[in-house]
Each structure stands twice: as C-alpha cells, then as structure tokens.
Design goal:
Blueprint lengths: L4 H6 L3 H9 L3 E2 L3 E2 L8 E3 L4 E6 L9 E7 L8 E2 L4 E7 L2 E6 L6 E5 L4 E4 L4 E6 L6 E7 L1 H7 L3 H5 L7 H4 L10 E4 L6 H5 L3 E2 L12 E3 L2 E2 L9 E2 L8 E6 L6 E7 L7 E2 L6 E6 L2 E6 L6 E5 L4 E2 L6 E6 L5 E6 L14 E2 L6 H13 L25
Length: 383
C-alpha cells in the first residue's frame, strides 16, 4: 500500500525518531477511552512507567505523554527549555518547582488538578501514597521545538537558566489564580470577585474573564465559568492562561442530554475529560465522522481542519478540558468555521437521540434551535 504523503513527512521528524528510540509504548489513533488504564512501559532515564500519545491531529505539533509515579516514589527532577502543562489523572502527591539557586515552591496535587511548569524551571514530582501509583498527563510543544532544534540533548541537558521566569513576578506563581478581563471582555461575576483589567490581553473566546495562574486544584469542580453563548447547548467555559508564556487551556461545561455546535480549528489540541459521559464526532470534510466515546480520563484530538462536535449522554453536566491554543493556529477557531444547528446533517441529531434512547432518556435540546439560527440561550443574566 502506498504511504500517504503526510505519513512520509512524519517519518522523518526528529521528534518521532526520539520517542521511538526510548522504547516505551507510543499510542496512536483518534482517541483513548481511559488514560488511567492505557499500557505503559519502563522509562529508565525517568525512573517510571510512561507512554507517549501521538494521536491523529497532534500532527507533529504537540506532545502528550502519560507518566506513572510508583507508590511512595519521588521522580528525578526535570528541566526543559519549553514550558509544560500537567493534568492529574489519578493519585495524589507533591510537586516542587524551582530555578537556579532560588527557593523551592511546593504544592500538593490530587485528581483533576492542572498545573504549569515554566521553561527553564526544575520540577520534581512525588507520589504521596504508599499503596497506589499516580498517573499524570503531560502536554507541551516538543515536536515543533525539536524540528527547529533537532537535538534532543538541547532539551534535556541544556545548562541555561532564567530564574526570573519563576521569581520575577513578585508573587507566588502557584497561589490562587486570578481573573483578568482582556480588551472588550464583559464578565460581571468576575468583576464582583475583583477581576483586574488588562487591555493588552486578547479577549477570551467566550467573551468573559481569563483566569491567569500556574495551579488549578480541581478542574472537575471548577465553578468560575462564563457563558459561552455562541457554541450552543447553553454551555459555559473558562479560559486559562499561564504566566510568561503563550501556552493556555480552556474548559467547557454543558448540561446532560445536550450537545454543542460543530466547529473546527488548528492542529495539536489535546482534549481530556475531567467528568461526564458522552462522545465526540470528528469529521474530515467529505467523509464519515469518527465517533469517539468518552468518560472520565478519556482523551482525543481533533485533527486540524476537521469539524468536531461534543455530545453529553450522561445525567450530569459534562466537562472537556482542552490544551493547545497557540496564536499561530487561533484563526481557524472563530465562528465562521462553525456549523449552526439548522445547517447540520439530520443524522447528527438522529444519532444523538438514538444513543439517549438506549439509556432510556430523551434529548433536552429545544426544537427551536433547529429552526432559528439566531436563537439565544437564556443564562438568566439578562443579556
């Protein structure tokens, strides 16, 4: 069989050669149903079991890897010249972050926590439990960086340090995140909580506040959400930025027996589920959709230029947490690249209703959304 052009290009990436050389599993495909159960292999240099994800859609842009810390073990410290975001899949423990000869900042983490390690900072992770392992999802842009600098030693043996990235902010970067209103942002709830305004910050996709910080203790319970009026299903969202970098994240929340509008954006965005039951459709234009079923700790990646759409089959609000908002790929995510409910294929709605019927429930989508493309969801805030 003739190899696709994109696959031929990928085979020559230095990053791909590097992860293959380590000898641990590399998981491919469109989705993984539960990262807490996925196969791992021993990574001698890191002193733990681990695996890489190279899902279709990461496209040489982003890295995701699973690291499992054995019970009661502290991993060797790691410093990289790129930042990294970490999400806790299971277990609890302690993280220590420092740079140069500066003091260590330590904090505890538990399931559903999310934190960011700045570039040139050391991070050391410990499992606080003596009876069970802990699993974490790491996310960064190593494939792009390693294409520009095709030398793995540059990333793992680089002596350069810049403590100002960690200590130059005038406060503890792992304290409580703060709400910031970008230019034109409107968010009365955040303003009541003392949000600051920074017109140099772009407005969040949902039009409300952006939460800035390096530590978010529980994304499954995060309740500082803003209405996401344009994406449908009466959903809410939080936009997250990490200080001193263009790396960011966002999380959307939407009710049971509802579904969001289909949309597309650039490559490399990895989505993990903190809570909920449902599925997502990934649709390459002109082809049949790929169904990605999900529950807690599932992961999937919409390929760049593919429409994707999220459906809640559970009995409680569902949450999906998305990593990867590089400015270079932001333009493809606006509402010109969204399919309104009246314009979607009838089989989208039919499949959703059939899946709910299997569970003895009915769709709660109001019928008017399929007729009125200008329908506005009521958030009870008078807007």
């Amino acid at each position: 069989m003739t190899e696709a052009p994109s696959e031929r290009r990928r085979s020559h990436l230095v990053y791909d050669e590097w992860i293959e050389s380590i000898g641990i599993p590399v998981h491919r495909g469109h989705y993984i149903s539960d990262l807490r159960e996925v196969e791992l292999g021993w990574w001698e240099e890191r002193g733990c079991n681990a695996a890489f994800l190279q899902l279709k859609g990461m496209e040489g842009v982003s890295e995701a890897r699973i690291v499992e810390i054995p019970p009661g073990v502290t991993l060797p410290p790691l410093k990289m010249p790129i930042g990294e975001t970490i999400y806790v899949l299971s277990g609890s423990g302690l993280a220590s972050v420092w740079a140069g000869e500066g003091p260590k900042t330590s904090f505890e983490w538990a399931p559903h926590a999310m934190f960011h390690v700045p570039r040139y900072a050391y991070a050391q992770l410990s499992n606080a439990r003596g009876d069970q392992p802990a699993r974490l999802l790491h996310y960064n842009y190593m494939p792009m960086a390693m294409t520009v600098v095709p030398d793995p030693d540059f990333f793992f043996k680089n002596p350069y340090e810049d403590p100002s990235l960690l200590y130059g902010q005038g406060e503890d970067l792992y304290s409580q995140a703060k709400a910031v209103l970008g230019r034109g942002a409107v968010d009365p709830a955040a303003e009541r909580e003392g949000a600051t305004r920074d017109d140099s910050m772009p407005v969040a996709a949902h039009g409300g506040a952006t939460w800035v910080g390096n530590f978010f203790p529980d994304m499954a319970a995060w309740d500082k959400l803003s209405p996401y009026r344009h994406r449908g299903a009466g959903g809410t969202s939080v936009n997250v930025r990490f200080p001193g970098t263009n790396m960011s994240a966002s999380m959307s929340v939407f009710d049971a027996s509802m579904y969001k509008k289909a949309h597309l954006h650039g490559p490399g965005r990895v989505i993990v589920i903190p809570r909920g039951e449902g599925y997502s459709l990934l649709t390459e234009p002109g082809k049949e959709a790929v169904v990605c079923p999900w529950g807690e700790a599932a992961v999937f990646t919409p390929p760049g230029g593919w429409y994707h759409q999220h459906f809640n089959l559970g009995t409680e609000p569902a949450r999906y947490l998305k990593f990867g908002h590089l400015p270079q790929f932001a333009g493809a995510g606006d509402y010109r690249h969204q399919i309104e409910y009246p314009d979607e294929a009838p089989k989208v709605r039919e499949y959703f209703e059939a899946e709910l019927a299997k569970r003895g429930r009915e769709s709660l989508m109001p019928d008017v959304v399929y007729k009125d493309r200008d329908y506005e969801w009521d958030y009870g805030d008078g807007d």
